[in-house]
Amino acid sequence: MIWMRMAVAALGVGGPVALGVAAGRPALGALAAVGALAATGVPSAASQGDGTASAGAILRGAASTVGAVAAAGFAGAAVTGHGWGGAVALVLMAAVSALAGGLSRPMAELTTRFVTFMVITTGPARNGHPAAVAAVVAAGVAWGVLLALPLALALARRADDPPQRALTHATGDTARRRGASFVRRVRRGAWSATSRRYAVRLTACLGAAQGIALLWPHPTGSWISVTVVIVVRRQLTGAARRAVERAAGTAAGALAAAALPLWALTAWPFTLVVAGLAGLRPAVKEHHPALYAAVMTPLVLLLTGGAPAGLAGLRIADTAIGCALALGFGYLPWAVRRREQPHQQDQRQAHERDQEDDRADRAASRPDTVRSTRADVE
User: What are the Integral membrane bound transporter domain coordinates in residue numbering (predicted)?
Assistant: First the structure.
């Protein structure tokens, strides 16, 4: 099955590039291929907690992916070239997306995809109209989704109890329960400590990356922010190790792109290299973060402007800066805090136990309090 996923990914990304080369518009083909990169996440965006998804959920996830990536292309093109105002707008949109991702797992994946592709498109969309960029990116992701859907639907499991689900929809107070459930999800998810922490981590890294790119104007400055969104992720469990692995993979990918003569590829060899790198992504994405970053980095480099020899040093410098920001602002301080929290929790629990013992001792000296407390419990 993995070979089918790899073939779908290779065709999904390589197809738009080949079409652009054949039509004499390789830049448009590469921009559409950037959108097609998002199509490999369609099944996971619709999956439930056990990793399965119904056909309806997969179709809704596919439509949501197309919409999110098209919106990302529009936003990326809209903020590009507007100096500090555009940088602030990009960081604010990333912060809102990080908070909204706490509503549910599918929303977390959609918002992460939105932020990632918004930042990626700021490079190739520098001279494009936002609506045109959104249309091209949407066409690319729609092509990738059409290729990925048959395989995803073949693996889908239908819901087990449709009559019960229909009865639930038929009850009169469903809308009220849904509204209350949404409010709880906002309070416990979008405004939870995890979501707020991720928003702070992401915006701190992106804000620093945008500031450096503006204070040090150079042709590849957007790659600092791209490195940040590749390395920084929502979950902190095992984050320090995975962040270091992703940073190492990103640096290795940038070095490989600089060392290999990728900048000298002609149109059709370029297309084959892009398709080959895209085909490797599904095989390494889940369990090999370093390899995934090492594959993703030259792929994004090629699709967002290539890796010309004269800019190799700048790309490496941008990658190093982005990795340093992601680790310095996005992970290491928070990992230290998480290691301190279990000790603090033990102290708090011990303090609470001491307080309970004191209350029990005082209650034992007053039998009426004991009787009233027992009556309240009963």
Answer: 211-327
- 375 within domain boundaries: no
Indicate the residue type of 136.
Answer: V
CB 90 within 8 A of CB 118: yes
* Dihedral (Cα; 325, 248, 338, 207), 10-degree rounding: 20
Pick from 89, 88, 61, 58: nearest CA to 74: 89
Q: Tokens for 229, please give them.
A: 């969104």
**Angle at which helices 239-259 and 222-231 pack, to 10 degrees?**
140
Number of domains in the chain: 1
- Is 150 a member of any domain? yes
Q: Enter the tokens of residue 89.
A: 């707008």
What's the rounded Cα separation, in Å, for the pair 200 and 123? Answer: 24
- For the chain, what is the mean pLDDT? 77
One-letter amino acid identity for 112?
Answer: T
Q: Which residues contact 268 (CB under 8 A, 6 or more apart)?
A: 18, 21
Would you say residue 296 lies in a domain?
A: yes
pLDDT digits (tens, 9 = 90+) for 208-256: 999 999 999 988 888 899 889 888 888 776 666 777 887 888 888 888 8
Angle at 24 between CA 22 and CA 26, to 5 degrees: 90
Residues of the chain short of pLDDT 50, as ranges, are 45-51, 158-172, 342-351, 353-354, 357, 359-378
* Residue 213 covered by a domain: yes
Taking the model in full, what pTM does it have? 0.76
Conformational region of residue 258, where left means phi above 0, alpha means psi within -120 to 50, and beta covers everything else? alpha
CA 22 to chain CA centroid, Å, is 32
pLDDT digits (tens, 9 = 90+) for 65-88: 899 999 999 999 999 988 999 999
Lookup: tokens for 170: 């038929």
| Residue closest to 300 by CA, chosen among 223, 242, 224 | 223
User: Which positions ≥6 away from 8 have C-beta within 8 Å?
Assistant: 40, 147, 148, 151
N-to-C CA span, the chain: 58
* 3 state SS of 218: coil
The amino acid sitting at 68 is A
363, burial (CB in 10 Å: exposed 0-12, middle 13-18, buried 19+): middle
